[in-house]
Design brief:
The chain has 264 residues and is of the alpha+beta class. Helices cover 31% and strands 24% of the residues.
């Protein structure tokens, strides 16, 4: 991608460069979980620390006055100086896949200007795929513009992505295929590029969704709660887990998806 081709600024260019470099660094940890351990906490923790430190160091060198979101907003004061920019960096999404050597995992970065989203990206280092979005413009998978599925009706060829304990909470009459690929941001990006018609999310946080929310909206999709109300990430910047279960899809398919779900 070139700066002039897509008319992005230095901030987005920095984000793409740093997330690619962080992704290359993450590969030194990839697939190195201890055999027999369901969750290798030591591996994941060290990877997250190293990658976060790398991102913070690069940001401090290039844009030292910018803010970084941790577990709560650092400052809610509207400003016109450099502090109006805030970055949200998630070093690992899909940690079980990451430690097991399964390639569906990645890193994400989002950028807000006075709490208004202006850029989001998700990078999958094991497959070298980059998905990013610019609100009001377009979303891209690598260098190709993407959009949500134009499908108006669900069919037996439709794909619905779920979280691991979905069947503990719901009975479904979804007519197509139901899959869990083990990575929330990847699920959202696959909906954004039309490879899946919808995804259902649970037990997520602001960190998990900040970048992917920008990508899905740039691709013409939405994140809804089960009441059909649009999801607004900035309402969940307190660092707590989001209680609502969420549906990611195109606006025209939301009702069909919701009607497929019955509480268990």
């Amino acid at each position: 991608m070139t700066k002039n081709q897509f008319e992005i600024g230095d901030l987005a260019e920095f984000a793409l460069n740093v997330i690619r470099e962080a992704g290359r660094k993450s590969l030194s940890f990839y697939g190195r979980g201890k055999p027999g351990l369901k969750f290798d906490d030591q591996l994941v923790t060290q990877a997250e620390i190293d990658l976060t430190d790398f991102f913070q160091t690069q940001l401090a060198k290039r844009f030292p006055e910018h803010q970084i979101f941790n577990t709560s907003p650092p400052d809610d004061t509207y400003t016109h100086d450099a502090k109006r920019y805030m970055w949200i960096f998630d070093p690992l999404d899909g940690v079980a896949n990451f430690q097991a050597g399964i390639p569906i995992w990645g890193l994400s970065v989002a950028l807000l200007e006075n709490y208004w989203p202006i850029f989001g990206a998700f990078y999958m280092p094991a497959t070298n795929n980059l998905c990013y979005g610019l609100p009001g413009k377009k979303a891209y998978w690598d260098e190709k513009a993407i959009s949500v599925s134009p499908q108006a009706q669900l069919s037996d060829e439709s794909l619905f992505l779920t979280y691991s304990r979905f069947h503990h909470y719901y009975h479904s009459n979804f007519p197509g295929k139901i899959r869990n690929l083990g990575c929330t941001a990847a699920h959202i990006c696959y909906v954004a590029m039309g490879r899946a018609e919808a995804a259902v999310l649970a037990n997520e946080s602001y960190h998990d969704l900040a970048a992917a929310h920008i990508i899905i909206e740039s691709a013409g999709g939405k994140i809804f709660n089960l009441k059909g109300e649009p999801f607004f990430p900035n309402q969940h910047m307190d660092g707590q887990r989001i209680e609502d279960h969420l549906i990611v899809t195109s606006p025209q398919l939301y009702k069909q998806i919701r009607d497929c779900l019955k509480k268990a």
